[in-house]
What does this fold into?
Amino acid sequence: MDFLEIPKLADSEIPRTVDDHVVEWMEFLDAKSKGVIEMLADKNQDIKKAYDILQIISKDEKARMLYDAREAALRDELTRIETAENKGKAEGKAEGKAETICQYLEVRFGAESQDVQERVRTITDLDALSRITNRIFIVTNLDEATALIQDNLVSQ
It folds into this structure.
């Protein structure tokens, strides 16, 4: 994280390089003339992009509204994508937990556990699957495993 102290730009004792992008941005933010801004925009493509956007939104209210609507649409799209990704991750975790439970049931109780495994595969609630996973390894027989899973299906 950088802290930019624009008043320190005037301090000639502070060392800086000619192509320091942070200093360029500080000069852009502090610019008092259009000429300085255009010079910085010619030198730095990111500043040019910011300057172009500022020109668009400062022209008139309609252009500003269009810009704001476009930005809102982009943010909405990013939110939809993030939500879909999170949903996919949760579904993947649930499937993984269900598969772990089923593998344990298969190894521990064999083919007799097929019905219970099918019930486990219908559970989509990650919390319920986590509760089952935390307790499945201490059951001593298939009836206990069935009861554990049934209890979590009811609480779902």
Q: What stands out?
A: Helices lie at 21-30, 34-43, 45-59, 61-109, 114-121, 126-136, 142-155. The CA atoms of residues 24 and 40 lie 7 Å apart. The chain is about 75% helix and 0% strand.
